[in-house]
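Quick check before the chapter quiz. The format below is the same one you will see on the exam, so make sure you can read both the input and the output lines.
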Amino acid sequence: MLSETKIPVRIEEVILENFMSYEYARIPLRPGLNVVCGPNGAGKSSILLAMSVVFGQTYTERSRKLSDLIRHGKEVARATLMFDNRQRNGKRPIPFSKSDIFMLSRYLRKDGSYWYEADYREMDKSQVTRLFREFGINPDNMLIIMHQNMVEEFSVVSPQDKLKMVEEAVGFQDYRSRVLEAEDRLLGLVSEEESILRALESAEQTLAYWREIYEKSLLRKELIERRELLERESVWAQVIRQERVIASLKEKLKSKTNTLDNIVTRTEQTKGLVKGAYDKLTLQQLEQRKLYYSLLELEKSITEIQVTENILNQLNMEPSGKLVERVQGFGDSKHKIEDRITETQIALGRLEKEVGSSLESYVNYRVNEAVLGFRKKIIEDEIDDIKREIKDHETKLGELSPLIDKAGDRIETERGLIDIDAEIKITDARLQSLGSIPEEAEDMYKAYSKTFNELKEKAAIVSENRKSTLAELEERKKVWRNFLQKLIDNINPSYQNILSKIDAIGNVRLNGLEDVETAGLELNVGFRGARPTILDAYTQSGGERTVSIMAFLLSLQQQIMSPFRAVDEFDIHMDPRNREAIFKVIVSTIRERKDIQYLMITPSQLALAEKDIHVIVVQSIQGRSEARVVKDLANK
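Here is the expected output.
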């Protein structure tokens, strides 16, 4: 297996920058068991999530977009893994890096882009995935990395997928591929053999073959006649189209001409209204000037009277005789003139309103006249364009005359040129697909006889290959089944031993091994004296499912090739007794494998008295996650 030859890689430290609830954190890891504790929501699971993202995981159960993992208000996040790459027996775990510490970072941007850096140089994701697959680290395999809620999810995974996970985890998935490859090769040979046998059967039906040739000749004749008809239809379709376009344009021309006549009539009417309004306005303005001049004369007369009265008053003269009569006459005239001034001003005010109204009517009529003139120009231009179009289409129709003479009787069709041309192309393709029809029967018989003998020889070879491939496939299936059965035989005692510590019994069982695709793995468990039943999402309680799955994971630990394993909330739904029992098994299991790192995340309080446990506590302080080491194997 690969785990026996590949130097295991070990994570020294996890660095998080602007990742989820972390601003910046450095989390050291140690060989053996690493426990991350802290209250719910503190950011424990984010550590494992960040590691999985660096390992190449693209989907997360918390977020479907990697950009959502960036801390709020930040543009870029970084997750970095520091690996121990010191030489062991003259070799480095990651040979292409010459540093004792290999640093791999994955950067995430808000726009959804991301990139990798290995020792400060950009690295392609496919290279990262290939690197970790060499160590057996697949972040999407629950048996290697079990994120939050996945312990419960594992119970509903199909038996087939459970078995595939186990094969991958123990480094045996390539053998499944080889079995499937042999099956595909066998199917190909079976298909080829059937094809050859069909060809042999066909070769014996020579009379049927020549009947087919005859039917092809009849079809060819029919298609040629059909093509000629389609060519005629194409010509008449062009004629009909031009005729319809011309008719439509003439109808449109008629409508535009009617519109133009209407505009001309309305224009003449409007001109009459303009003239009448102008004459009326002219008379009113003349009357206005007359009244204005009369007002000026009246104001002049009253001014003279006022001047005379002022002079007499200044001379202190007492009028007598005729002078008295004259002054009195002035008084009478003054009152009359003032009355006439008032009347004239009233008349001017009234006339001014009438002039304004007449002016407004005149302007409106002129505007209407201008608008009608503008519309008349537009309609005349449109009529000219339509006439040009009619002339163009009549010219095109005339150009079709030579084709019409050859097309024969008129064909009325509603189809367009595109549909007709498409059918012509299909007809041409069918004619071409018929190929040439041979006329020399004797030559054809000889050629067919030779082909028949060659097919017989080839059929014998393919049959022999099919038999050898079938034997190879059966041997590969046998090896595959024996390996898996041996694996389960090794797992079962450990699985049953762990279950016994929590008052339960059960076993791991394979089924459907006859077919690689349908083969599956089942966990059977019974609690408190109950008969073991298949583990699923309905039969057992949440706590029973959790302890059963953890028992299976722990029993499988010695077989998994990945040097790094992790499980988040292993104790979900467990009561305190089972939690302590499972935890003790975890500790004892990890102690047996000094070459692996195990990361366990739990919100529970555990008895962490063992000296070789690396404990990290995560807390949320003012919306920012912080991690600190409270127990470090390296300090012992």
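If your answer matched, good. Residues 283 and 492 are 123 Å apart (CA to CA).
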